[in-house]
UniProtKB/TrEMBL annotation, chain A:
It is a multi-pass membrane protein. GO terms for cellular component: plasma membrane. Gene3D superfamilies: MetI-like (1.10.3720.10). Residues 95-308 form the ABC transmembrane type-1 domain. Belongs to the binding-protein-dependent transport system permease family. It comes from the Bacteria. The chain crosses the membrane at residues 9-30, 99-123, 135-162, 182-202, 243-265, 285-307. InterPro entries: BPD_transp_1_N, MetI-like, MetI-like_sf. It is found in: Cell membrane. This is ABC transporter permease. It comes from Methyloraptor flagellatus.
UniProtKB/TrEMBL annotation, chain B:
It holds the Pfam family SBP_bac_5. GO terms for cellular component: ATP-binding cassette (ABC) transporter complex; outer membrane-bounded periplasmic space. It comes from the Bacteria. GO terms for biological process: peptide transport. Residues 64-403 form the Solute-binding protein family domain. PANTHER family: ABC TRANSPORTER SUBSTRATE-BINDING PROTEIN, PERIPLASMIC BINDING COMPONENT OF ABC TRANSPORTER. CDD domains: PBP2_NikA_DppA_OppA_like_8. It comes from Methyloraptor flagellatus. It is found in: Periplasm. This is ABC transporter substrate-binding protein.
Amino acid sequence: MLVYALKRLLAMIPVALGVSLVCFLLVHLAPGDPLSAVLPTDASQEMQQEMRKLYGFDKPLVVQYGIWLGRVLIGELGTSISTGRPVVAEVGKAVMNSIILAAAATAIGFFFGALFGFVAGYFRNSWIDKIASFLAVVGVSVPHYWLGMVLVICFSVWLNWLPATGGGPGGSSDARSLDWEYLKYLVLPAITMSVIPMGIIARTLKALVAEILNQEFVQGLAAKGLDDRGIFRHVVKNAAPTAFAVMGLQLGYLLGGSILIETVFAWPGTGFLLNSAIFQRDLPLLQGTILVLASFFVILNLIVDIAQAALDPRVKRS
Amino acid sequence: MLVSQAVQPAVAGGTLRIGMTASDIPLTTGQTDNGGEGMRFLGYTAYDSLVEWDLTSADKPSVIIPGLATSWTVDPADKTKWTFKLRPGVKFHDGSDFTAETVVWNFEKILNKDAPQFDPRQSAQGRSRIPAVASYKAVDPLTLEIVTKTPDATLPYQIAWIMISSPAQWEKVGKNWDAFAKQPSGTGPWKITAFVPREKAEFAPFPDYWDKTRVPKLDKLVVVPLPEPNARVAALRSGQVDWIESPAPDAVASLKGAGFKIVTNAYPHNWTWHLSRVEGSPWNDIRVRKAANLAVDREGMKELLSGLMIPAQGFMPPGHQWFGHPTFKLTYDPEAAKKLLKEAGYGPDKPIETKILISPSGSGQMLPLPMNEFIQQNLAEVGIKVSFEVVEWNTLINIWRAGAKHESSKGATGMNYTYFIQDPFTGFIRHLQCNLAPPAGTNWGHYCDPEMDKLFDAVRNTFDPAEQTKILEKIHEKYVDEALFLMVTHDVNARAMSPKVKGFVQAQNWFQNFSSITMD
């Protein structure tokens, strides 16, 4: 197992390097001026050149990449062009907010997704299956920014139960606590965000449970006289690795935040930060945020792979 | 990171919460970013400039008035030498004194790279605002001398952009602008008491403000960045904020129906097509320029925008002090337009085919796609076939800086651009002065007319405000009579607010006064 984990860890290095190169190049190859956030619109050519030099954008791309990568390796993501604040601090705070949102959405999504998936798979073609399948399809199909707006209209504007936007009272997520005054800001974005993983997990598990139930070993278990509860336990055990894998990927998406959801709810997470960075063309912030998000995927993939191998020896052998 | 400040006695005016369109809190150090909105909320609130805008009237365009300077004069023998008399007894929020030395220190923070207080971010925002300034010195504690590179009567307008931060506070926080940003200090009517990046800034009244008529009546002012229009509307409707900037036009009717106030006013802003005057451009023919201006159905466009625009009658909004008396009227007359095009050698069988650069969004661009498509249809009806080159807003800015001759303009003969037109330089001179053609400046279309240049020189050399206004009127008349731009509309700076907000007077200006406001 240790050898397997080490191999996976080593395989991660070229992937991480590739990710860093892609995210560096992507933002540099996009049209527009990286200094547009700090330059007044009618800045002179001389001033533009001067600022380019100041921020190091006058150097060849390869040199810029080398400098950037060197800093990244020591955990230094540079300084935001538009605010002058360290990117690490900006991304760190946003990541914390996205983790809180993702955790809440995961709890909701995983619980209902697994419930719908198992129920629909176990009671195939019954009305329970139809309702659960319908909800799962709605979950993956509905545009979530639209759902977010509908929830805001219902629960914030009409009923005035929950806040429409922001990360906390007075627009601030600072001093976050388990206090309802803060938690209520989490409810609508978390529900909105949970809908997609809920649908995906439900659909995956439904198919998987149905497939497992058709396998010979289930018939064998039944023939041996195992009761339904016992068979269900075996089904769960067989379905769990796949459920974990799916949830791991979904968790990656959720941790990355959703630009749309976080923008609709003005939730101060990574999606909102990414949105700001794009609109302000704040290259260091954009690169830093994308790199952190991409790293989430790489690390989560690693964790999921190792967890899968631990749960299912066939994965390790393959 | 909450900033602790001395607790002020409540003025019992309540708390006003504003949803801005910015995606972050603009710079809090003095010279702000985020354009006009940054100066509106984080500039003129917490800071003052030597020269200010009169923001007390909604009925007439704003004019400049004394601020931290009580008067300014130019040396009759040397028109480059200005003397600013400063206001006595003014204190910064930290309790230190405002003097001529502090003004010099502030010029150094944006102009002198070798000064310890030089701040690249504030410099980037402020330096280009005061191109005329060559040198400055404190003559005595309340007298400042500024020398300009050449005689330039527009200097007071330029100085109105420069926000005065406290040197004492900068020293106190360890000579560090990032630390200063968290504990800012200016001389403005509001003190910044809390600042959470990307989330909110809070202000409390500054009871020792030098202008007692502008000591805020509210207990607290909170600004929150809400870049998404629907999120702003939802926040207003759910009572999370009391005021939002720029509600989406399609939300206006429902907001009005729900009892919210939509406040609008004329302000120095226009939405135009900047026309190329390089060789080969069809717009070099005045008949074609006039025909295009007569072909646009501005009232129809007003309907499209739910009434949130003022149809252009010129480059300046109607009623502006520099409007003058142009003879060419911007009516909707497609027949006259067709006639003019025929005279110019074009017709249904020989339409003009040309390309215009537009952006899908951008600061001040209103609703660029449907508005441009509307004009495209109008022009097609008289024989001008327009195709669009759609580029991202920041790319459009770069192309604007590069000029119509540059390859990035891709042969386009016009560009849809919105302009801040609050002072003579930003309003007129920068667009059309011969020596400001790119790369030297932002005369994108490479227009050059010696007669216009003479008028621009006259503006810079006329130090009597009334005489200067007469010249600015002449310039505007030339802008309109020669149809130098496709003049389409002016934005009305719409904001939606709760009926609880009382006492707001929307000045005809990019900046606003929040001191008169109370909450029910």
